Amino acid sequence: MAQVMHIWRNNPKNATPYLESLGDPQRQTSEKQIIIENLDDWKVITATWFEMAQYLSVLETLANDQNFAGRGKAALLCSKVAYCLENYEKALAFALDSDNNFSSTPRQDDFKEHDSLYVNKIIEQALDTYKKKRNQKMEVEPKLAALIDRIFQQNLERRDFNSVIGLAFDTRRIDMVETAIKSNEVPEKTPVMIETLNKVWESQLDIEFRTLVLDLIFHMLDADLEIDKKGSQNLALKVLSICQCLIKLERPAQVAQIFNNLLSKKNTLVAYQLAFDLYENAPQEFLEQLKELLFKKEDSQKMRKQSFPQKTTI
C-alpha cells in the first residue's frame, strides 16, 4: 500500500478509491493511516481537495475516533480541506484538535508556498478568535491558549521582542509584555521600557489594559531609580518616563514624592526638566493637585493665589 501510494502521489489523480477505503470497516487501521499520511501533501491536496470535500464526513469520523491511531493526522487533513473550502473557523477547530500535528512553522518542503498560506491563515484565525474571547472576557479553550503561547514562545526564541509586545497588546497579555522586556538581554533596560511606553501612546488600547501596562512600566522603571546618582545618564529620561506613566495613571502624590526626592538629593537640573515636562504634558487639574501636595501647609496661604500658569490654546 505504501509503495503504491508513493507512486500515485507523484501524479495524484482520482483520489476517490483511497477516500472510500477510509470509510471501509474492513480496511486495516494501518492502511488507513498510510492513506491519510499520503493525502496530507499539498501537491495532493491542491489536485484533489474537491474530492476530499465530498468525503469530509468520513475524514471527520476518523478525526473524532479516539481509538484511531491516526486521529491527529486525520484532524489535520480535515483542517486543510476546510481551509480549501474557506471555512476557516472549522479549519482552526480541527487544527487545534490535531494533537499538536499542526505546526505554526510552515513545512520546509512547502509546495508552491501552500503550507505557508495555510499556516498563516490558521494563526490569523486563532489570533482573531483569541482576541475576541479575551476582549469579551470569555473563557479561552486550553488548546487555543496553548497555540497562542507557542506563537509567543517562537517570537521570544527569535529575540523578536517588538513582535511579542505588539502581539501582547493585541491579545491583552500583560504577562507577555513583562516577559518581553525582561527577556531583552540589553544591560540597560530603560530604553526598552521607554520604547514600550511609546508603543502605548501609539496604540489604541482600552483604558483597563493601558492602565495595567503603564502600571507595569512604572514599577519596572521605579524599581531601579537611583535619584542620588547625579551623573546617571538615564536618570532624567527615566524620571520623565515614570512621570508620564503617573500622569496617565492620575497619581500626583507619587510625582510629588519624586519631586521632593530630587530636591532633597540636590538633583535640581532633573527637577527643572521634570517641571517643564509636566507643564507641557500634564492636565491643569493634575498640576493643581500636584501644587497642593508640594507646598507645605504653612506656605499654603502664601501660595494660595499662585498657581501653575494656565495653558492657552492657539
Automatic annotation (TrEMBL):
GO terms for cellular component: nucleus; proteasome regulatory particle, base subcomplex; proteasome storage granule. Residues 15-304 form the 26S proteasome non-ATPase regulatory subunit 1/RPN2 N-terminal domain. Pfam families: RPN2_N. It comes from the Eukaryota. InterPro entries: PSMD1_RPN2_N. Keywords: Repeat. One of its GO terms (biological process) is proteasome-mediated ubiquitin-dependent protein catabolic process. This is 26S proteasome non-ATPase regulatory subunit 1/RPN2 N-terminal domain-containing protein. It comes from Meloidogyne enterolobii.
